[in-house]
Design goal:
The protein has 99 residues and is mainly α. It has helices at 2-14, 16-23, 31-34, 43-49, 52-60, 68-80, 82-85, 89-98. The chain has one domain (2-28, 42-98). Residues 9-41 have low confidence and may be disordered.
Length: 99
């Protein structure tokens, strides 16, 4: 399991350039929806932040391991941001890890 997580983290770091342009304020969530909190940790940010370990497992397993928190974060991001709707689950998971 440690080997899988390490591989996932390495993949995430290598995709930081890609995810950096997408991550924004909340891994791709629309700035209009999240900037109103002006730096405070909102429930929206928590959904994405709590999905990090699930995202690491998903990336490391090449999409075979899908946790409930990752599923919730993917749904949340796609509800908030039209650009996220066009991204694959893997791209969003990598963006979550790059935060």
């Amino acid at each position: 399991m440690t080997r899988i997580l390490t591989a996932g983290l390495l993949l995430a770091m290598s995709s930081a350039a890609f995810a950096g342009s997408f991550a924004g304020t909340s891994a791709g969530a629309s700035s209009a929806g999240t900037s109103a909190s002006s730096g405070s940790t909102s429930g929206d940010d928590k959904i994405v932040r709590h999905a990090r370990s699930d995202a690491a497992s998903f990336v490391a397993s090449d999409g075979r391991i899908r946790g409930a928190r990752l599923e919730a974060a993917l749904r949340h991001l796609r509800e908030r941001d039209p650009a996220a709707r066009r991204r694959s689950d893997m791209a969003l998971a990598r963006a979550i890890l790059a935060q």
